[in-house]
Amino acid sequence: MYCEEFVPEDDVLLRARDRAAELGCPAIRPGAGAALRVLAAALSARSVVEVGTGTGVASLWLLRGMPADGVLTTIDVEVEHQRAAKAAFAEAGLAPTRTRTIPGRASDVLPRLTDGAYDLVLVAADKHGYPEYVEQALRLLRPGGVLAVDGALHHDRVADPARRDELTTVVREVGRSLRTDDRVVPALLPSGDGLLLAVRR
Ligand SMILES: C[S@@+](CC[C@H](N)C(=O)[O-])C[C@H]1O[C@@H](n2cnc3c(N)ncnc32)[C@H](O)[C@@H]1O
Questions:
Q1: What secondary structure letter does DSSP report for 59?
Q2: What is the distance in A from the centroid of ligand 1 to the CA of 35?
Q3: In angstroms, rounded to a whole number, what is the distance separating the alpha carbons of residues 128 and 6?
Q4: Domain boundaries, the chain
Q5: Which UniProt keywords apply (predicted)?
Q6: Superfamily, domain 11-200
């Protein structure tokens, strides 16, 4: 699709995407990755959290929008995924100080991060955990900071009211609750698999 390929990926991103396919870990699609890079650049995001490192595809998009002294804190329960992500960060020539990779379950790690200290939080891990990760993200964001939730359309199932399986319902409810949450200004972009955005008031 034209929009998904509008900003092409370089070899480092394509290799990280290949490793994601090898490990069976779905990576963010390029259109949503490009949108994240825009957000990170627009916010001059120096402190970013990613929930669900995978092999580092979204991490690279974020880091490329962040200023040169920005630090990405990225969490994943799978050590093998984070190992692949670290290889991608090295290939991209990123200084080790630019990334803080934390192994562990998001529900254990997120509560240890500081309130109101982050410019941007990307939620992209197990969808069952989305309601909890979104709540944690709203705690972590500074006013004016942005929450991004990847997979918000869940393969277009969220938009189809006839789809009532558990995961689709969880993701749909996350969107509904952010839409009526006075703490944020929301929008749902159709890029990638759906990128739900919410600016923290
Ligand atoms: C969709 S992939 C992330 C893709 C990545 N953001 C990218 O675009 O390259 C989801 C990741 O979440 C991780 N994950 C699953 N459950 C988790 C949990 N409870 N806590 C932390 N990470 C988890 C998986 O190991 C997997 O690497």
A1: H
A2: 19
A3: 31
A4: 11-200
A5: Methyltransferase, S-adenosyl-L-methionine, Transferase
A6: Vaccinia Virus protein VP39 (3.40.50.150)
- Average confidence (pLDDT) over 165-193: 98
First to last CA, the chain: 34
Cα distance between residue 91 and residue 173, in whole Å: 38
Q: Which two tokens stand for residue 15?
A: 């290799």
What is the residue-wise DSSP string for 76-138?
ES-HHHHHHHHHHHHHTT--GGGEEEEES-HHHHGGGSPTT-EEEEEE-S-GGGHHHHHHHHH
List pLDDT tens digits, range 120-146: 999 999 999 999 999 999 999 999 999
pLDDT tens digit string along 8-47? 999 999 999 999 999 999 999 999 999 999 999 999 999 9
- Whether the pLDDT of residue 1 is over 90: the answer is no
Q: Which of 49, 62, 78 for a ligand 1 pocket mutation test, highest count of atoms within 8 Å of Cβ?
A: 78
Residue 75 CA, ligand 1 centroid: distance in Å:
8
Ligand 1 atom with the shortest distance to the CA of 56? 9
Ligand 1 mean position to 148 CA, how many Å? 14
Percentage of residues of the chain with pLDDT beyond 90: 100
- Return the residue whose CA atom lies nearest to atom 10 of ligand 1: 125
